[in-house]
Batch of 2 targets.
Target 1
Amino acid sequence: MEYLIQIIGNVLAALYQAGGASLVIAVLFMSAYMRARKTGVGPVVQGWIQEFRTNTLFRRQFFLVFYICMMLFRTLFCRSIWGNPLDNVLGVWGFHKEDGSIYTENIENLILFLPMIPLLFWMLEEKEHNKKRPLQTVLARSVYVSFGFSLLIELCQLFLKIGTFQLTDLFFNTLGGALGGLLYWGFDRSRKRAAAYIRKLGGWDTEEWNPPAEDSSRLPIIKAETADTEKEKTFVPVQEKTEGQQDHSTETDASWIPLTPEQEEEICTLIREAGQKMLHAKLSDDAVHEKDGPANFCTDFDMEIQKFLIQGLGRILPGAEFFGEEETEGNAGSKASGEYTFYIDPIDGTTNFMFRYNHSCVSVGLAYQGKIAAGFVYNPYVDEMYSAVRGKGSFLNGKRLKIQDKSIDEGIAAFGCARYNDENVEVLFDTVKELFRRSLSIRSGGSAALDLCRIASGSNVIYLEMKLQPYDYAAASVIVEEAGGVIAQIDASPITLHKPCSILAGTRRGCEETRKLISFIER
């Protein structure tokens, strides 16, 4: 009988010890099996490989999950059953046990938790920007995450009796996580400082002097003041004009743009923070206010976010003026005439925001000496940041955008309309009806900035609206043009930055076809 009991005990213990790992592996295997059963093994494998090769976030998630699984196998899975998990709660705080044998588990736990926080922050960097946060914020978050994860492991060991609950494990696991957060925060800063010091030490931080180019097309031309023309110093564009692209947007020599890479990063970070305010807003009826015209609304969050942006942008670019949608402190409106002027729509798509449509954005454009130099449009619901600086290209979450010159029948035609802007509404809907017949489909998203940006990302072929304010399209205009698109008024005249105007943007072919269509309808 004694042998039988021992055999049964050993068998049950073996099954119990492998139970956790077996459960996880079985669930993952069956999930992959169900997917492969529907689509085939080949597409699943190819899809996984393609995602791993092209999607940075997927790779970061994979490495984090891989490392956490290794930690779980070390701390939970395949552990021996422990009779009393509370028989050594205080643990061993030194390097030797009571019997004099060497004890290094504390240091091992610290080293084990050290990479977890950097991997987690690395995965979330594009969304949370932990590298740019204050050190105390990074350390607090590191302690919170590592302590919570360690406590979860210890509680599992306690209730499942597969280890001992020890305070030393909690302490050293948390300390390892905090050190990991410190390393993640400090590595990039140390690397940049070291690189700057080496460049300075070697004399490589100075720009090589180049003699003036002989090509006069690349030199600034100063036009003399005469009775016929009085114009200030202007730059002749380096690149050739694309048909349909206007003079205000073709100055693509990046040297005239007074934004440093650090300022660009700071602006993007600020706009992401503004987007988080929109994302987590708790909207009530009392927070919604009517403006002039039918179905024209403003919320407390529109004004709060605009104030936040004006304060933050003012610190990044002191002396700048602001043309924002809402009446808040610091907003000069259409009278803004500074060397730098920010065009701000704090929530583009307010009606969508009111009804939880989850299709709104923060839009910030920057004009320098009366010309749009940069644009930033952020959709917090899907964490999409469109950005462009004149002469440097358009980007979506860091990936460069370049559109193909498609015609209307090769893509989606988007349009916008608002009840408080009902000018030429009959022409608009007659045009939309024809676009519906000629395009693959039509869309009206309720956010002009996002619909314009979708031209840059290739989703829309054209975007049409009869009347928009400068803060609606300022940021998106440079994003469209830097991606290879065109934007102008419906009559092909340049868009304005001091008063509302009509908008027709898209591919060159798409805009040409739409203008011909509108001309035919207006006859």
Target 2
Amino acid sequence: MLICVGFVGIHPLAVFAEDGVNVVQTVQQQKQTITGIVKDATGEPVIGASVKEKGDPSNGVITDIDGNFRLSVPANATIEISFIGYQTASVKAISGKPLNIVLQENTEMLDEVVVVGYGTMRKKDLTGSVIQIRPDNLANEAPKTVQDVLRGTPGLNVGMDASAKGGGSLQIRGQRSLYTDGGHNDPLIILDGMMFYGELSELNPDDIAQIDVLKDASAAAVYGAKAANGVIIVSTKKGKNGKPMINFSTNWSFSTMGANRDVYDGEGYLKYRRDWYVAGTYGVNPETGAYEEYQADKKKYPAGYYDAPTQENLNKYGITLDQWRAYTNAGSDISDQEVWGATRLGLQGNSLANFLLGQTFDWYDHSFRTGLNQNYNVSMSGATDRVNYYFSLGYMDNEGVAVGNDYTTFRSNMKVNAKVTNWFEVGANVNFQERTDGDTTVDWGKQITENSPFASYRNENGELERFPMGNVSGNTGYNYDYRQQFKERESGYTVLNTILNAKLTLPFGITYAFNIAPRYQWYYYRSFQSSKDPDVTAGQAVTMVSVLTGH
């Protein structure tokens, strides 16, 4: 449950109508055309300000080089005027008189402290292109990754990862190089003043206080060539003076398919096979001159050969059931359905048996699911004149829409700053993560395309079917659940990212700061294969691989 409380302050805006100005007003479909000009507090026109009808974002314009605009809106409509760095104005549309709108500066936005490579400064004193994001403002959206926090930032392209892990690629102002391997176009990540070489999944959005995106060349003045693709500066939370604060948040969400693709059911699959074979029989009908089916080789493919022996089809082609059966040398003990399914449409194995029984299985529905996502976070923070601390612990358990796509992670952050003396300070920022990166997602493409709707999920004994299409030559099908019951995999990372710092204040206003950021990373991979798996030969039944890395 996530509860958010917010307060919004609105400054008065100067809005009035000028007298003595003629305005041409047109009424079409109960709409009126309003005109006006948008200026700032100094009287200068605001170029490119957004003017739109409230409640209908699609009905809007931008001001021209002189700050003028013209917009058609319904009678008594309210229009909203907005521009970066200014407060949004809302005014009633005035018929017959132009609007003179004065936008007031958003002093709160301009006084925000922005983190740049060489320190901090106020936004209004900054000449470079910097965007600031505060995750607390997005708390209602419950972002589960840092990429979710950054998504929608102007000039920043955030990719989409539909897996349970989430995330996505980052590019500032597009791709800068033709070479894309090895994150060659990725921006530089700075975490609390130090270069960060890990995954953004290691950072809990709940622990982030502020993100500043440096988009132009000024970032290179501090970070050099590494800043060629831009810089993303992440500042984590710290304690505040006063009583210790304990926060707990949790949220649940569901992952569903954005768009489902139509796949064949039993009836559709039979029609598909019928159409496939009939395609080779098309030719010119000598009587009508039209290009029709069953005309290419009437002796080999007489009329109705691949069609079901329904009375409707028999009447369509002017034949009897006996004539239809006579197309194939089939015994009297073979049913009409078996003649059509086996001889004409080529069904075999389990597909033929289930067709005759009228049994189907939805492999598409069995490959996907509604995933449950859970996120729990708890933090404790506080500060005194000498010590500032922040501790947090988070757990996330996500399920993707594809069966078997699971992701879990434990994340913890400890941030302590202590003023030992008036001239010596020490601090530590430790991030820990334990995550699973080795899910066993179903090969849904293979399971859907290699199995017909008549393929068997379980055999007659109720056991998972090894060969859904039957143990026949050609395609035997694919059953994820059967293969998965003999396998077990554990794969993931244990990461410890630390930032240690010390600050020494010397005479004559000289300050010396020391920073070190050791990073330790362990990777493990364990794969188990049961000896009962008939697809595994003797001597290969159990395999275990473990890799350890650290730096």
